[in-house]
Amino acid sequence: MKSNKGVTLISLVLYVLAVTVIVGTVATITSFFYTNTESISESSKALGEYNKFNLEMLREVKQEGNSVVSISDDQTRIMFNSGNTFTFQDGGIYKNKVKICTGITNCKFRKEMQEEKQIVVVLFEMKDFVRTIEYVVTETRQTIQTNYD
Questions:
Q1: Which residue(s) pair with 117 in the sheet?
Q2: What is the distance between the alpha carbons of residues 68 and 33, in angstroms, rounded to a whole number?
Q3: For residues 121 and 82, what is the distance between their CA atoms, to the nearest angstrom?
Q4: pLDDT score, position 56
Q5: Which of 38, 41, 84, 140 is the most buried (most CB within 10 A)?
Q6: Cα separation of 15 and 52, whole Å?
Q7: Per-residue pLDDT reduced to its tens digit, 62-96
Q8: What is the pTM of this model?
């Protein structure tokens, strides 16, 4: 008669190996998931701050008849003839005295002229997130009245 001890010992070794592989795989996937989740939350925060700034700047440059009055020498402040000022200081961007963005590492404003259009160029930097954005300042529209008499 054959002994069943060998079969039981082999089954036990295979069971331990299979459980070890499964536990290792689950641990690797869990580690990967949590690492990527943290990375995604950082990039989504950067996108959120960028979107808040972009929305406010678009509102400003799309105002009819608005134009850039001045930019500070260090390029951290831009003033429009609407009376609104955007300022980069202390890791944030302020519109007048209201902080609209946080966690900003650098922001520079520049004005350019292209084919009689005023362009505002903004360098926007956060940790691992850099954008250079160009905004065309809306020109004043003139209405032409005609009389058909």
A1: 114
A2: 47
A3: 18
A4: 92
A5: 84
A6: 55
A7: 988 888 999 999 999 999 999 999 999 999 999 99
A8: 0.66
Structure tokens, 41: 């939350």
Assigned token pair, 92: 């944030």
Q: Is 24 helix (H, G, I), strand (E, B) or coil?
A: helix
C-alpha to C-alpha distances, 55 to 21, 51, 63, 77, nearest whole angstrom = 50, 6, 13, 17
CA–CA distance, 75 with 25 (Å, rounded to integer): 52
pLDDT in tens, 35-48: 766 656 667 788 88
User: Tokens 């990967």, residue?
Assistant: 32
CB atoms within 10 A of CB 82: 14
CA of 22: how far to CAs of 33, 93, 136, in Å? Answer: 16, 49, 57
Residues 6 or more apart whose CB falls under 8 angstroms from that of 147 comprise none
Using an 8 Å Cβ cutoff, are 106 and 125 in contact? Answer: yes
CA distance 87 to 71: 10
- Cα-trace Rg, the chain: 30
CB atoms within 10 A of CB 133: 14
Tokens (6 digits) for 145: 């009245």
